[in-house]
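Shift notes (night). Ran PREB protein while the centrifuge was going.
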Amino acid sequence: MKKMLEFRAHDGEIEDIALGPDNKVVTAGRDFQCCVWQQDQLVTGLRWHENLPGIPDKAYRYQACRDSGTFLGLGTVTGSVAIHIAFSLQRLYYVKEAHGIVVTDVAFVPESRPGRELLGGHEAALLSVAVDSRCKLHLLPTRRSLPVWLLLLLCAGLIVATILLLQLAFPGFL
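Came back to this:
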């Protein structure tokens, strides 16, 4: 093996590391940060005081991370579990103290046939394991979205309504 790249990712120890799509790397460190890297460049990161206001930095720490390509799953030393969108780190799911103590690992259920059976109608499923000797399945509900045809119909209606209002406000507009 030959070292290809070396850079300082965190202040202190790295708790976990996960490889993501597009050669991205996710790290969880003892410095209370979770970071997404492209080579040695920081793409984006999470800090407790920015992501979860009102929760003291020192009370929580990211312990485990996994990146499914679409989602980033995180576990903490206090037993909390979260799922974020991988590219923006927007939080979609959070359970405070899902476990009684340290989450040691998290893993997404694969999108194979047995995995899809576990998912049911949910968008993603994350397994968490903790020092409390428990394994828990976290299901991310499917996010609602508008069909494209409905969005186009709404836009067309808005354009027609705007033209009618302009015609009423300014007779002879058309």
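The chain has a mean pLDDT of 85. The chain has two domains: 14-140, 146-173.
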